[in-house]
Amino acid sequence: MDGYALMVEYKIEERHRHEYLERLRELRERWPDVRLYEGSEQPGLFVEIWPAASEAAAKACQEERLDGRSPWSAIGGWTAGGAGRIHAWTFRPAPL
Fold first, then answer.
1. Cβ neighbour number for residue 5 with a 10 Å cutoff
2. Does the structure show a pLDDT above 70 at 2?
3. Which of 26, 52, 85, 95 matches a 20 to 30 Å C-alpha distance to 77?
4. What is the C-alpha separation between 24 and 13, in angstroms, rounded?
């Protein structure tokens, strides 16, 4: 069975795009497994995918990602609507 994933979704305000992408470059050095996608029909809408070996590991990633003391927390200030508009969900493998 494949692993779990944390998916984080938010929209970055255009005026903060440059700062955001610079921060992501820095964060990817520490978290190289995190994948980042931008909506092709909705520029500025981003999804992060954090791979995790278990549900508990995905929840730990979620806590790290959303904690106000996390290096990721600056993104909340660049998000349309503020940090409360950052959505995070844990996904498990679908039974096939």
1. 18
2. no
3. 52
4. 15
